[in-house]
Amino acid sequence: MATLCNFVDNQAVPASNNETLDVTSPHTGQTIAQVPLSSSSDVDTAVAAAAKAWPAWAALTVNARSAKLMALHGLLTEHTGELVDLIASEHGKTRAEALGDVGKGLETLAYAAGAGALGAGQATYVSGGVLCRMDRAALGVVASIVPFNFPFMVPFWTLPLALAMGNTCVLKPSEKVPLTMARVAELAASLLPPGVLNLVHGGGAVAQALIDHPSVAAVTFVGSSPVAEAVHARATARGKRVLALGGAKNHLVALPDCDLEMTARDIVASFAGCAGQRCMAASVLLVVGEQPALIARVVELARALVPGSDGPLAMGPVIDAAAVTRIAAAVRGAAESGAEVLLDGHGPATAFAVRQAESGGFWVGPSVILHRSPKDSALHEEIFGPVLSVLHCADAQEALAIENASAFGNAACVYTASGAAAEFFAQRFAAAMIGVNVGVPVPREPFSFGGCKRSRFGSSDITGDAAIEFFSTRRKITTKWSVPADQTWMS
Ligand code: NAD
């Protein structure tokens, strides 16, 4: 069984200790690789390589760095099939979802390759003979700590723009899905100078060693809210620039005038796509007024999903046995507190249960729960699986109040045929990424990705125009060479 290596200075480097974790196939429960739990001295080695590479990388023109990123885009595009295979095998996504993971990551890479224009400075005469200009200086070494749910796309929220702006990077992939980015690091080694992109495997201890390292200037984190909050506090206490994206509990509001078929299909795609393991996945459906036909259609479409890796109705497994247990407990807990389980993804007779028993993998079908009490914990806590909680609301105001009270603020969506109603919700949702008839409202480049409340700790977004600001320092240079005779430098 292969044990992965760290990747430092464009070379595979074994971790210095023998501690490892199994990387498990969600399809079968079988071990497919071993990932090292690297030591703090491995972190030191990777950060030292990144720090050493930084001055020369930062000294390149932005166009020279962009050219390397464009070449990387070409190389990774050529290897898309291989990356899709890796994502599907270590994460369990269907092939279409894995292709989306790679495609969205490549979009951020293409955007970052335009950093020459996007990150350009400004210059203006501010008084007689005095020119003030602003350019952007790189920060130094950026550490990127990422979750399991998008093995390629989420690392690519940080790396392209951080590199384009002249920083060097140390990535800690999720220990649950380390294979995809290990292969990306190998491929990138043929194009990027040594030390520019490094990778250290491990879990929380490696992440903490990275955050604490005095040569790390900035930290990006994506993961669950309790860890995001702790990472933000830890990095801030050490004077680092930090952005930590956390978990979510996304609300969808279905108004009585919504298009039934389009809405039902969109809701199912949102809550069951990627087996519910998206931070933008629908979690709570607030049905305004009586809409039994909509709820029935959602259940019907969800019931039609089948366990698998390919095809329009396929839904993949969840990441591990702990996820199966957590999801089952959430559905059982809701039933015990009086909710009606309209569709039980754990029902013994479902195709998912059969697949789980036969394969030893982590197969869980979609669940739809009709709640009677707004206090049910399934309505408030992140489950991170294919579970939709449905709650009736008397009117739009009640739906809005429930959404606004959520501790999280990642995404929210309204389904309606009315522009005025859509605008009413778009202006009042307490989330930062809002959909109108779009249940996974991911803002694509140049728009930036990031939530609010407990979905984001730190003030920046992680991609797009906002991230240019995060990955650079505005340097203001004021210059006077001569003063026109009719002016003073004070004029
Ligand atoms: P997680 O919080 O368990 O792990 C995320 C990363 O943190 C991993 O690399 C892990 O090794 C590391 N880590 C674990 N303990 C740590 C510690 N004490 N200090 C520092 N780092 C530590 O999250 P996960 O289960 O991998 O991913 C799912 C979560 O990520 C969900 O909550 C989901 O909503 C969230 N997520 C959020 C976004 C977003 O944009 N807001 C995007 C994707 C995923």
Automatic annotation (TrEMBL):
Q: Which domain of life is it from?
A: Eukaryota
The record's section on Gene3D superfamilies has: Aldehyde Dehydrogenase, Chain A, domain 1, Aldehyde Dehydrogenase, Chain A, domain 2
Q: Which PROSITE patterns match?
A: ALDEHYDE_DEHYDR_CYS
Q: Which GO BP terms, alphabetically? A: L-valine catabolic process; thymine catabolic process
Q: Which GO terms describe its molecular function?
A: methylmalonate-semialdehyde dehydrogenase (acylating, NAD) activity
Name the EC number(s): 1.2.1.27
**Keywords annotated in UniProt:** NAD, Oxidoreductase
Aldehyde dehydrogenase domain boundaries? 16-474
Sorted alphabetically, which SUPFAM superfamilies does this protein's record hold? ALDH-like
Listed InterPro entries: Ald_DH/histidinol_DH, Ald_DH_C, Ald_DH_CS_CYS, Ald_DH_N, Aldehyde_DH_dom, MeMal-semiAld_DH
Q: Per its record, how is this protein called by name?
A: methylmalonate-semialdehyde dehydrogenase (CoA acylating)
Lineage of producing organism: Eukaryota, Fungi, Fungi incertae sedis, Zoopagomycota, Kickxellomycotina
